[in-house]
């Protein structure tokens, strides 16, 4: 059931992977939330179509 | 004008948009620089730079994953110097990122390996790449909040369909606000825990309702953002329906509030059908919508303020009456509303329309006219709309976006009242009231309009609502308890001028 997985999220402390604006991670850390910041750069050399394709392949 | 434009492209180089905007401003402020932009080379950004006369051949060839530095200056030498300075700024974080800095994963996969207990991925990379990251997340069984916008609608729909199959919640794209299990995410406020669960397709709408619930003594169990387009036909309310399921099952939630723009009929029917089957009472605020037939466990309200009051069982006639001595009559007939929150602008329009006032807006609710519509009427603008924010920060992050319009309205001899919202909390500017007061004091005149404001936030927010209100008042601003009250006060002052109220 989809319900149980989302309900579980609402029952647990948040543990966040942040991809993008670093300020969001900083503010979460300040609130005592466990967060890991990804040092992100555009995948597939910045080719959005290829990046989409790779994500579909699970890469 | 013989300005010189120079471009430099860094292939596959990413820096977040807020950092880039700060850097752009820093460069643009230098002597001899007409304009400067450091942006990822997405098609939309390239269009913005083209329109600003900032792009030459090198920049035009950039792709979504490339960083473009574009500078227009009075001489080539000035432009080249600024380019070198930009590059040295860009290299600073990397220079500092050597020894002593914590290791950071470069991919979601590596991040999850390092933190296997992760349960949510917050995504704010350019929209062109956001879906790919979100897809990776849901396929790992992770819920996502997608702050990024500019994601094609069909991709949003496909992602949400897949997420539903996998049992994962997708909040967004273009989801600015959520509070999950007591934690504010992105643009959200620090509010007490309580029994009211929100499903919000509107960021500032959710902020106003959660903050008013706190102001009235209540608290929030969860505020689940779904993104502004979740209730469009193409998406069909997938995340809204999943959020309703989750709040029904959440023992901490006793009352549900749904906030959205009016959905198309078939989506509204589907959502209302689900609500009819919900074991909990639901308050529905489709801001701008006409009256709908509600299930027996649901109540429709028409403003954000009423959504908050009704959720706590408070009466809806609790309009805080303006102090007629303080507000007096408007000296001129027209109201200019300069809003940073889109839904706050919509709420004000709904209230103006209900009072029989003529309204024009760049985001008109039903009954209001588009801004280019000729004729009279009050002007209520959503300054967070794309036309004002393309290539610029949102006015909630950077209040200077509102400055020029504020100064124009202060000096406009037809304007009797200026209506504004200030939205504080996580993600927002550190002192919007201080900035607003400074601009106002610097541009004050003896015959200026009445300035009416409301502050969306709480005293637990980093900016502290009470402090923000005090700063506004010190600049002569009248501060209403809610956005709805500010709109009502404005109407009272305008109608009083016409002799319609006493």
Keywords, separated by commas or semicolons:
heterodimer; A: 59 residues; alpha+beta; two-stranded parallel sheet; 3 helices; 2 strands; 47% helix; flat; B: 502 residues; alpha/beta; Gyrase A, domain 2; Rossmann fold; 3 domains; 7-stranded parallel β-sheet; 5-stranded parallel β-sheet; 18 helices; 38% helix; globular
Portion of residues within helices of chain B: 25-40%
Instruction: Count structural domains of chain A.
Output: 1
How large a portion of the residues of chain A is in β-strands, by DSSP E? 15-25%
Rg of chain A, Å, rounded: 15 Å
Number of helices of chain B: 18
CATH homology-level superfamily of the largest domain in chain B: Succinyl-CoA synthetase domains
In the CATH scheme, what's the topology name of the largest domain in chain B?
Rossmann fold
Helix and strand content put the structural class of chain B at: alpha/beta
Spatial order of the strands forming the largest sheet of chain A: 1-2
The H/E string of chain A reads HEHEH
Helix content of chain A: 40-55%
Strands of chain A, count: 2
Q: Report the average pLDDT across residues of chain B.
A: 91
The domain count of chain B comes to 3
Structure annotation, total helices of chain A: 3
Q: Can you walk me through this structure?
A:
The complex is a heterodimer of chains A (59) and B (502). With 59 residues, chain A is of the alpha+beta class. Chain A has a two-stranded parallel ribbon. Chain A is built from three helices and two strands, in the order αβαβα. The radius of gyration of chain A is 15 Å and the shape is flat. Chain A has one domain. The two termini of chain A are 27 Å apart. Chain B is an alpha/beta fold. Chain B has three domains: 4-96, Gyrase A, domain 2, CATH 3.30.1360; 108-311, Succinyl-CoA synthetase domains (Rossmann fold), CATH 3.40.50.261; 324-497, Succinyl-CoA synthetase domains (Rossmann fold). Chain B is built from 18 helices and 20 strands. Chain B has helices at 17-28, 43-51, 57-60, 76-96, 108-114, 127-139, 153-166, 203-215, 238-249, 265-276, 304-311, 324-327, 342-354, 386-389, 403-410, 432-442, 465-474, 483-497, and strands spanning 4-10, 33-40, 67-73, 120-123, 143-146, 170-171, 177-180, 183-186, 193-200, 220-225, 255-260, 282-286, 298-300, 334-339, 359-361, 369-370, 378-382, 415-423, 450-456, 478-480. Chain B has a seven-stranded parallel sheet, sandwiched between helices. In chain B, strands 10-9-11-12-13 form a five-stranded parallel sheet, sandwiched between helices. In chain B, strands 1-3-2 form a three-stranded antiparallel sheet, sandwiched between helices. Chain B is globular. The N and C termini of chain B lie far apart (57 Å). At the A-B interface, helix 1, strand 1, helix 2, strand 2 and helix 3 of A face helix 1, helix 5, strand 4, helix 6 and strand 8 of B.
């Amino acid at each position: 059931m989809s319900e149980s997985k989302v309900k579980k999220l609402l029952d647990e402390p948040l543990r966040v992977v942040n991809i993008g604006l670093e300020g969001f991670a900083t503010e979460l850390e300040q609130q005592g939330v466990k967060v890991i910041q990804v040092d992100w750069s555009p995948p597939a050399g910045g080719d959005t179509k290829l990046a989409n394709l790779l994500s579909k392949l699970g890469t | 004008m013989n300005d010189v434009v120079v471009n430099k492209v860094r292939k596959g180089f990413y820096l977040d948009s807020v950092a880039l905007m700060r850097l752009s401003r820093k460069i643009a402020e230098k002597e001899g620089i007409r304009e400067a932009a450091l942006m990822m080379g997405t098609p939309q950004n390239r269009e913005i730079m083209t329109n600003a006369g900032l792009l030459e051949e090198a920049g035009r060839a950039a792709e979504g994953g490339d960083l473009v530095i574009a500078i227009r200056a009075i001489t080539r030498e000035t432009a080249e110097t600024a380019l070198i300075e930009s590059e040295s700024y860009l290299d600073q974080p990397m220079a500092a990122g050597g020894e002593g800095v914590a290791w950071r994963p470069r991919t979601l996969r590596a991040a999850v390996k390092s933190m296997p207990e992760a349960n949510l991925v917050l995504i704010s990379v350019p929209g062109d790449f956001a879906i790919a990251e979100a897809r990776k997340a849901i396929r790992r069984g992770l819920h996502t909040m997608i702050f990024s916008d500019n994601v094609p609608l069909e991709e949003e729909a496909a992602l949400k369909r897949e997420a539903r199959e996998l049992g994962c919640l997708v909040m967004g794209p273009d989801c600015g606000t959520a509070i999950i299990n007591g934690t504010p995410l992105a643009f959200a406020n620090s509010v007490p825990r309580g029994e009211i669960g929100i499903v919000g397709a509107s960021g500032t709408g959710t902020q106003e309702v959660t903050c008013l619930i706190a102001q009235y003594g209540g608290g929030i169990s969860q505020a689940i953002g779904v993104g502004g387009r979740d209730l469009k036909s193409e998406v069909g309310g997938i995340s809204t329906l999943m959020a309703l399921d989750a709040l029904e099952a959440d023992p901490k939630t006793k009352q549900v509030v749904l906030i959205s723009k009016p959905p198309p009929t078939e989506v509204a029917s589907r959502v209302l059908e689900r609500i009819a089957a919900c074991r909990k009472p639901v308050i529905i605020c489709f801001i701008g919508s006409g009256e709908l037939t509600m299930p027996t466990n649901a109540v429709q309200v028409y403003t954000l303020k009423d959504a908050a009051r009704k959720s706590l069982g408070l009466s809806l006639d609790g309009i805080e009456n303006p102090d007629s001595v303080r507000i007096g009559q408007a000296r001129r007939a027209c109201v200019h509303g300069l809003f940073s929150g889109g839904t706050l602008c919509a709420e004000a329009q709904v209230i103006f329309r209900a009072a029989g006032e003529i309204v024009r807006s760049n985001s008109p609710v039903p009954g209001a006219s588009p801004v280019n519509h000729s004729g009279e009427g009050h002007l209520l603008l959503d300054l967070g709309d794309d036309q004002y924010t393309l290539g610029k920060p949102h006015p909630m992050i950077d209040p200077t976006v509102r400055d020029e319009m504020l100064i124009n309205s202060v000096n406009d001899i037809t304007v009797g009242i200026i209506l504004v919202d200030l939205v504080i909390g996580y993600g927002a500017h550190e002192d919007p009231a201080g900035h607003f007061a400074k601009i106002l004091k610097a541009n004050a005149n003896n015959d200026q309009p009445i300035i009416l404001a409301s502050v969306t936030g709480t005293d637990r927010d980093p900016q502290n609502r009470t402090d923000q209100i005090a700063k506004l008042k010190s600049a002569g601003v009248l501060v209403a308890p809610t956005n709805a009250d500010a709109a009502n006060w404005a109407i009272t002052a305008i109608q009083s001028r016409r002799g319609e109220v006493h």
